[in-house]
Design goal:
The chain is an alpha/beta fold. It is about 25% helix and about 25% strand. The chain is globular, with a radius of gyration of 25 Å. The termini are far apart.
């Protein structure tokens, strides 16, 4: 075991962003902060070395083109180029020692490229610390993750623990690669693979950072034997916040959860740590808190054996304390390990106790077909709990709950705010007899439904119509325009999957609008790189292809005159827009001084979104505290251009609101 001093040196530092000093929107410090100056001689050496690495990667790519099996290995080489190139290009060397690390990373990249050129990849069978990377479907970027492979690993299906890192405002790719190449980290359970996600930098694994974990897992599963029934979600500080939200929003994925410190929700945390008055926040933003408020979906921890940790004198004990309160409302008692007289650290003896408990839980594995399912959600980004799928809601952003229990001959279900749901048991998972016609009792009504099939799969779709539940052939009515999983809003939901920014090439309706659109588009690309660590894909409007429409959410900048794609769609959108007037939500606005932002199913491909004039909706002020990093705009908004964009908003929010379940306006604020 490593010495205690080394263990403590690896613990996350206290977040820099706590306190009222970061409540001043007019004095926002930059995140990431400016780096140190790299001497010109060193910069020239690195630049020359990067050119050599780029050439070696190109040679390795030729080998990959001949052998598509190597495609998943090329990012393992490219990440070393990205890490050093971005640090050099964007001034993200944050300490002088990173210059030496940059040379080491280029050397490792060259070694891997040389192997890949001849079809070899020794690092995939290496034990100990292994830096890996994948290419994200969201933006095509190369994203790193770290693996810790125990000496005992033999290729048999193994437990895997995720460890979500703490807040690190200087945690560039360069710093992360260095860390994951030389430090085991906070945990090293016996006979366990550990995956350290980068999480798209410093967003508490939200949005693209949330998708990052699952993309890293998907990549790792191609190379390591990972037992899907023994996945454990863990983290401390900002990583503890990530563990809470992963635990409740993806409860069916985990064998166990171990959140430490961090935060579990937004409003109370900001009051405690920022002395921030949240009373003036608009109602639509308060509804959007539900996305990442673990407290609001605490019921889902019924399905996840959870061992929380806090230091006794750590202010961030608040996270587990408030989760304990909300869990008791669900008649669930939280297991909470408390490090005696410990501040923002993991107490060594507490860690021993945590590992003991997790070992006992993971030895049993996760339950694949629980007889009871209890599920809470607020929107259809999160729509499934084991064999129960919520297909449609009566109203988004209202409390939605389902309680279901397998009986001898069917299922008993109670619902709240559900309009359609499915029972979905894959082959081998249905315990009901194939000889008896099962029944479902839902909200007091009993229906005879289709039998399970001989492969022990069972699929049933139910819909509420005029207050009566009936069985249907499909989850959704054919060709219906309705909010559903992957098509529910709000604006930020579009950036959880592949997107393409579409640049206008025509003349804008008016000069003020044109300047605003250009400024916001430039900012969107810049901030996507800084905060989510990828280059936002972008094309001119006239270059958008049928493949783009089929595979990407389209982010349309400009107006119906300047953007050719928007011109094709405008008559099919729930807004009116010409040179004189912008009509949204039954109100008319002067088009010379107002712009719409919105999300809507793409009329050219209703299984994908279009977004008009927006990227992710939180801004520079919100970078200062991870609890603020929640959606700031709902499905649509009208922006007044008389107010200049700032660190909080893209202008004056004149009106904003959600579309109803059929994607029509239902009133703003």
């Amino acid at each position: 075991m490593r010495p205690l001093a080394l263990l403590l040196s690896l613990l996350p530092a206290l977040a820099l962003a706590d306190g009222p000093k970061d409540n001043i929107a007019s004095a926002v410090r930059p995140i990431p902060p400016p780096g140190v100056q790299v001497p010109k001689a060193e910069a020239d050496k690195l630049d020359a070395a990067l050119k050599g690495l780029r050439a070696a990667i190109d040679e390795a790519a030729k080998a990959q083109a001949k052998n598509p099996m190597l495609a998943d290995l090329l990012p393992d080489v490219e990440i070393y180029h990205k890490a050093v190139d971005w640090a050099l290009r964007y001034g993200e060397f944050h300490k002088a020692a990173e210059i030496k690390s940059a040379h080491e990373q280029i050397a490792e990249g060259l070694a891997r490229a040389a192997e890949l050129k001849v079809g070899k990849h020794s690092w995939t069978s290496r034990k100990g610390l292994v830096l890996r990377a994948y290419r994200s479907r969201i933006d095509g970027s190369v994203q790193p993750y770290g693996m810790v492979i125990p000496e005992s690993y033999s290729g048999a299906p193994s437990r895997l623990d995720f460890w979500c890192h703490g807040r690190g405002e200087t945690l560039s790719e360069l710093a992360f690669v260095e860390q994951r190449s030389k430090q085991v980290g906070n945990i090293a359970p016996a006979n366990t693979l550990v995956l350290h996600p980068y999480g798209r930098y410093c967003c508490a694994n939200k949005f693209a950072g949330e998708v990052d974990l699952f993309e890293a897992l998907e990549h790792a599963q191609k190379f390591y034997a990972i037992d899907p029934n023994r996945l454990v979600i863990r983290g401390f500080s900002m990583g503890g916040a990530a563990a809470w939200q992963f635990a409740v929003n993806h409860a069916q994925r985990w064998c166990a959860a171990n959140p430490g410190a961090g935060f579990a929700e937004t409003p109370e945390f900001l009051k405690v740590f920022q002395s921030e008055d949240v009373s003036s926040i608009p109602d639509y933003q308060k509804k959007l808190w539900h996305w990442y408020n673990a407290t609001d979906s605490a019921l889902n921890l019924f399905h996840v054996p959870t061992v929380a940790y806090s230091g006794e004198v750590d202010k961030q004990k608040q996270a587990a304390d408030i989760m304990e309160q909300y869990l008791r409302m669900e008649n669930i008692e939280l297991t909470h390990i408390i490090g005696p007289q410990t501040a923002h650290k993991i107490h060594p003896e507490s860690l021993v106790e945590i590992e003991k408990r997790l070992a006992a839980i993971t030895a049993l594995g996760a339950e694949s077909t629980p007889r009871e399912v209890h599920f809470s959600t607020w929107f259809l980004r999160y729509h499934r709990m084991h064999w129960l799928v919520v297909d449609e809601l009566r109203e988004h952003w209202q409390r939605t709950r389902v309680h279901a229990k397998l009986t001898g001959k069917g299922v008993e279900i109670r619902t709240q705010n559900v309009a359609a749901l499915s029972i979905d048991m894959p082959a081998g998972h249905c315990p009901l007899s194939v000889r008896e016609k099962p029944s479902i009792t839902i909200d007091g009504s009993t229906l005879e439904v289709v039998r399970p099939k001989t492969d022990r799969s069972w699929s049933v779709h139910l819909r509420l119509k005029d207050g009566v539940w009936t069985q249907t052939l499909e989850a959704h009515a054919k060709d219906s325009l309705v909010k559903r999983h992957g098509l529910s809003g709000p604006i930020d939901d579009a950036f959880m999957d592949r997107f393409l920014m579409v640049r206008p090439s025509g003349k804008p309706l008016n000069e003020a609008l044109g300047r605003w659109c250009q400024s916001e588009m430039d900012r969107a690309g810049r901030e996507w790189r800084r905060q989510f660590r990828g280059d936002a894909p972008i094309k001119d409007d006239k270059a958008v292809s049928a493949e783009d429409i089929a595979n990407s959410n389209l982010v349309l900048w400009g107006d119906p005159q300047s953007n050719a794609v928007l011109a094709r769609l405008i008559k099919q959108l729930p807004i009116g827009w010409d040179a004189k007037a912008l009509q949204v939500n039954g109100r008319s606005h002067d088009a010379a001084m107002h712009a719409p932002v919105l999300i809507y199913p793409n009329p050219l491909n209703p299984s994908r979104y279009i977004v008009i004039n927006s990227s992710f909706t939180y801004r520079e002020y919100d970078y200062l505290n991870n609890a603020r990093q929640i959606p700031k705009l709902p499905d649509w908004a009208v922006i007044g251009l008389s107010k200049a964009p700032d660190a909080i908003s893209p202008g004056a929010i004149v009106d904003a609101g959600f579309f109803n379940e059929q994607w029509q306006p239902k009133g703003g604020h």
